[in-house]
Amino acid sequence: MALIRLSIFLLLFLPACQQTSQKGTLDALEEIPLMYAKGFALYRGNNFFILEIIQSPNKTQRFLISDPVEEVLMPDLSLDGKIPIGSHKVILSATPQVAHLDYLQAEDHLMAFPDLDLISSESVRRRIDEDKIIDLGKGPVTNFEKIIDLEPDWVMISGFGEPFKLADRLASANIPVIINQEFLEEHPLGRAEWIKVTGVLLGKEKEATEVYSKIVTNYNASRELMAKVPENKKPSVLSGTLYKDIWYAPGKESWAAKIIADAGGHYLFDKEGDTGSLTLNYEFVLNHASEADYWIGAANHTSLGSMVEQNSKYGVFKAHKEKQIYTYTLGMGATGGLRYFEEGYLRPDLVLLDMIKILHPEKASEHKFRYFERLED
Question: Cα 165–112–197 angle (5° rounding)?
Fold first, then answer.
């Protein structure tokens, strides 16, 4: 089920990225400083913004964001699209992007989304129930004819896969397609900083900056508190689950691994992989993590009993025997969407507090779990 939910982020249609020279042409503009994000850049002109989405060292998307009725005097730049500032007609493809609209009080801007059941936000679900948001369907092939008919100001998608044919068809309809690369950010606060992209697009730069600043302050305060925990007081942590004899878990440089470390935990796979998902065999996991104090992120199992019913191998782990397994299923929406996959990437400060409450409960006694819950019998 967790893998199915992950697959929703592999959606839809990637436009071919334009190769451009970055130096010299942007010198006259004010570069908006970023704190942690590496995957985008924002520049401010007299009455416009330039947004760059960095796909690789040699490939960058570049968009002009401005009032369509005002004349813009800007450097001679190659562009992948022009977007009206303060857009009100938006199509998204992944639930973390929906959380941006929620926090910027712009839920009414969302026109359509693939598989509406995955959305957990109560405010967005009300609009879904009122038939104000169109369901684009499930699976890797989207209804691009419907998207073209809706004439959105822009479409934002997650940068997985390479469905270039769909991208070309949208480009031919003059619909800007922004590839959101937030999942590549190594630092949790880097991923959260992508709300600034959404903020500029919606004409809510100030609001987005305020939201992000609070998240940074909260996260760093908790991180600094836990930095004082001695190494010998850090509980060991296992993560992930088996799927068809392969154990999937976060890599050592991943978002989740970073938060476990910042919460005063010792992630037992902190020497494996990089920013992506690990694919491990069961014997390796058993040898390295069978005695883990905690097991955090055990997919969306509902009980300890259901875990061993699905796979008896889970029962040999210390964390299972001592009932120290936590899943991210707290905050499930009316149709099964999980708050963790929607809001959690924007609110790493709250995820961090959840982790601290698991690993060092005395340090977060007043915090109430928002995403994680302990499995019972």
Answer: 80
Q: Which CATH number fits domain 10-216: 3.50.40.10, 3.10.450.50, 3.40.50.1980, 1.10.150.120?
A: 3.40.50.1980
pLDDT digits (tens, 9 = 90+) for 348-364: 999 999 999 999 999 99
Say which DSSP state 20 is in: -
Task: Write the DSSP string, 231-282.
Answer: GGGPPEEE--EEETTEEEEE-TTSHHHHHHHHTT-EETTTTS--SSEEEEEH
Q: Which value, to the nearest 10 degrees, does the dihedral of the CA atoms of residues 45, 46, 47, 48 take? A: -10
What six digits make up the tokens of 236? Answer: 């060991």
Distances (CA, A) of 20 to 23, 66, 77, 236: 9, 21, 9, 46
Query: So what CATH class is 230-374?
Result: alpha beta
* 121 vs 130: CA distance, rounded Å: 14
What average pLDDT score do residues 13-35 get? 62
For 76-204, where are the alpha helices, taking DSSP H only?
95-103, 122-129, 144-150, 164-172, 188-192, 195-201
pLDDT digits (tens, 9 = 90+) for 118-135: 999 999 999 999 999 999
Q: Where are the CATH 3.40.50.1980 domain residues in the chain? A: 10-216, 230-374
Between CA 112 and CA 269 the distance in angstroms is 39
Does residue 72 contact residue 64 with C-beta atoms inside 8 Å? Answer: yes
Instruction: Return d(Cα 271, Cα 293) in angstroms, integer.
Output: 18
